[in-house]
Amino acid sequence: MSIFCIALPMGGMRRRDITTFININKPKQKQLQDLVMSFVLRFTYEVAPVFTLMEAVVLERMRHIVGWKDGDGIFSPGGAISNLYGVLTARHYACPDIKQKGLLGKKQLVLFTSEQSHFSILRAASILGIGTDNLVKISCDHRGKMKVAELEEKIIAAKIGGKLPFFVNATCGTTILGAFDPVNDIADVCERHKVWLHVDGAWGGSVLMSKKHRHLLNGIERANSLTWNPHKLLGVPLQCSAFLLREKGIMQQSNEMHADYLFQKDKNYEVIYDTGDKTIQCGRHNDIFKFWLMWRAKGEKGFEAHINRMFELGNYLRELIRKREGFKFVLEKGECTNVCFWYVPLRIREMDDDERKKSELHQATRCIKAMMMENGSLMVGYQPLGEHPNFFRVVISNAAVMEKDLDFLVEEIDRLGRTL
Ligand SMILES: *Cc1c(COP(=O)(O)O)cnc(C)c1O
């Protein structure tokens, strides 16, 4: 494995070729890509030394970008699993004997997240035996940010009710509106009540790479753990998700089972590189190589430029929508590259019955989407949110998108919307 890796024609490749190599579609190159990418990252250093070291170096660099000097981490099969790691590690932190004794006889564990957070937190509550009824959802303001005063009230209420609040999730970059929860204020609450703070930055974590926009995550270094998916905003091919921790040791303690046919402590190298015993897996897919290669090719400057460009495109789309009649924002000042809007056909604009208007708009959005898919012009999604009828959500994360694509998108929605 390591020989193959070193034998790649890195020296002869120009930077652009390397990035192209990662994004290729040509069948022969695709085969090569699959071959390289499918190598399993084994559980011990001796079976995959190069990839193990690549992973260690990249995780360290990511933690450095977060603002952590030390810490730990692992590449996992996606943001949902990284969030599961967050809840799992916090659960171990709150109840260190849980591995041996299980949940029975303990205070009821409760966790907290905003109503607009990702469903994987809810699923983690189910998987880990805490129960979805014990996830407390905190409401959001009109921008989709968690209401921090309510968080503290609900933590206090849970304590009074004899329960054990052990985990708070703050989302940086919500899936729908792209909102950033106020991490500093949430960290204050977590410190006051000694509760683990996890940040779900599956979507917005990559914004840390941009000096211009990273203020959106202010306070991130105060979190205990973080989910950051390079396979989203950074454009790394699926799958590539990191689970990062501020402190070393706890993930190992939480998961280690000491299988003695693999994890002997008297090897002739530092056994911290035997990452297999701190994961919930055994062998893992090699998610690091493509990311490492992209990082080498683009550099941190390249990633920064990529993020800034995505934000520029988001603002460009917002400007198009602002200028055009019939389009209406769900949230005019979105914080990330999510742009959420309605097209309101003329006949609906003229209605005065609000309820009727809502339900017609709900249908109109579905209709426009269906027509686009039927024509094969564009593939877009829609969704409702709370009281809102269905709306379009455009999420920009692809470096190949250009202004003219967004012009076309808006034209097309307008053209189809007018027929309704
Ligand atoms: C996409 C997303 C996830 C899940 O990530 P996967 O890699 O698809 O498992 C979790 N949280 C947020 C905020 C997301 O946007």
Order of helices and strands: HHHEHEHHEHEHEHEEEHEHEEHHEEH
What share of residues is helical? 40-55%
Tally of alpha and pi helices: 14
Assembly annotation: single chain
Q: What fraction strand?
A: 15-25%
Helix-strand makeup class: alpha/beta
Bound molecule kinds, no repeats: pyridoxal-5'-phosphate
* Ends distance: 58 Å
Radius of gyration: 23 Å
Give me the side-by-side strand order of the main sheet: 2-8-7-6-5-3-4
Low-confidence runs: 1-26
Main sheet overview:
7 strands, mixed
Mean pLDDT: 89
State the shape. Answer: globular
Q: Using DSSP, what is the number of strands? A: 13
GO biological process, one term: gamma-aminobutyric acid biosynthetic process
Keywords: Decarboxylase, Lyase, Pyridoxal phosphate
Family: Belongs to the group II decarboxylase family.
GO molecular function, one term: glutamate decarboxylase activity
Mind explaining what this structure looks like?
This protein has 420 residues and is an alpha/beta fold. The protein has 14 helices and 13 strands. The protein has helices spanning 2-7, 15-22, 27-37, 49-66, 79-94, 98-101, 119-127, 148-160, 183-193, 250-255, 288-323, 346-349, 354-375, 403-418, and strands at residues 40-41, 72-76, 109-114, 135-138, 164-171, 196-201, 225-228, 241-245, 284-285, 327-329, 338-343, 382-385, 388-395. The strands form three sheets. Strands 2-8-7-6-5-3-4 form a seven-stranded mixed sheet, sandwiched between helices. It has a four-stranded antiparallel sheet with strand order 10-11-13-12. Strands 1-9 form a two-stranded antiparallel sheet. Helix 5 crosses helix 7 (119-127). It is globular, with a radius of gyration of 23 Å. The N and C termini lie far apart (58 Å). The chain binds pyridoxal-5'-phosphate (PLP). Pyridoxal-5'-phosphate binds next to helix 5. Belongs to the group II decarboxylase family. InterPro entries: PyrdxlP-dep_de-COase, PyrdxlP-dep_Trfase, PyrdxlP-dep_Trfase_major, Pyridoxal-P_BS. GO terms for molecular function: glutamate decarboxylase activity; pyridoxal phosphate binding. This is Glutamate decarboxylase 1-like. The modification N6-(pyridoxal phosphate)lysine is found at residue 232.
